[in-house]
Amino acid sequence: MSRSFRVPDGMTPPERAGELVTSSLSIPLDPDGFFGRECPNRECLAYFKVHVDDYGQARAVHRLTCPICGVTDSDEHFHTPEQIKRVRAGEIELARGVVDQTFRDLARRPPTRNSRGAITFQWRAPSRPHVPNPLPTYVERQTIRTFVCANGGHRAVIYDLLSFCPYCGPEKTPPRAVFDDNIAAMSRLLAVVTELPAEAQQAIQASGGTTALAERALGGAIAALQTLAKQLHSQADKPAASGNPWQNADRLQRQWLHDFSADPLADLDAKEVRNLRLAFARRHVLEHNGGVMDERYRQETGEGIVGHRLRIRAGFVEEAFAVAVAVANRLEATATERLHAVEAPNQ
């Protein structure tokens, strides 16, 4: 191939190395420099976005993790359908350009005859060079909330409940970063109804959506706190706790006092302690008893009527968010102190 040929906007001029013709193709970014990724796990297919300035870290190790389900695979397997369509179109235009240029090069050569000189092969160049078709483009989804990992400052835009940093994966994702992002997601979920026009709010309330969102937000916040306690406990090199104490506020408190000699509820006043215990108990009833109060719930909380259903209101959930963050701060502080104490003798 003696000369280059035109390619669509978004592709670099083609280069040839032996029999290989290559061109780089750009992927559209959103206004903040993020671009989409899709989990290759067919049972997940979660969409998320990463920042172009951070992505070199994934390319360097050929590794990326789905922040939702935790599948880790080659970063080249996380293309979105729109990106694949754009790449395929680029490949077609590159092939068309190679064919067009090949015929033009043949037309510049002298006529070719067979050994007897009876047949002449001639090539006529196309009247004008190949004009490439434009590449398909697309617009990435709107950014609602941005996750910033404390372990390296990696940025990602998540559209579901975060479990892992896309770059750190299950092994190195900071538990507190996941907790904070989940609380942000639940806060956003709780605010959905109040941000809608009045008519839409009434429609959601009539279908039970307001209650369902409040219940989901409460459950998500307490689940995030339970997961944080369990992960911090494990990272501090403590033996696995028996009986899953993380599902009950009082048992969590006793476990932390036993293993760290620190009370995770020490910074709370009486009302906040009461709200925390209620939040744990209500989440348990919602998850395991369909929201219907039983004798165990009544004994633990001193409230409610057995056989009646809980009513979860947004005001209580907002208070639970604040208490969960306060407890998370205390859990993290004591677990960090433990880690430093373990590391110091080894330094």
Strand order of the largest sheet: 3-4-10-9
Encode the helix/strand succession as letters: EEEEHEEHEEEEHHHHHHHH
Taking all Cα atoms into account, the compactness measure Rg is 30 Å
Please indicate the percent range of residues in DSSP E strands (runs of 2 or more).
Answer: 5-15%
Question: What are the low-pLDDT stretches, counting only 5+ consecutive residues below 50?
Answer: none
Structural class: alpha+beta
How many separate helices? 10
How far is the N terminus from the C terminus?
62 Å
Approximate shape: elongated
Describe the largest sheet.
Answer: 4 strands, antiparallel
Report the count of strand segments: 10
- Look at the structure and give the mean pLDDT: 89
List the helices and strands and how they pair.
Blueprint: E1 15-17, E2 20-22, E3 34-38, E4 47-51, H1 56-61, E5 64-65, E6 72-73, H2 81-107, E7 112-113, E8 120-121, E9 146-148, E10 155-158, H3 169-172, H4 175-191, H5 198-206, H6 209-235, H7 249-260, H8 270-288, H9 295-301, H10 314-343
Helix pairs in contact: 4-6, 4-10, 6-8, 6-10, 8-10
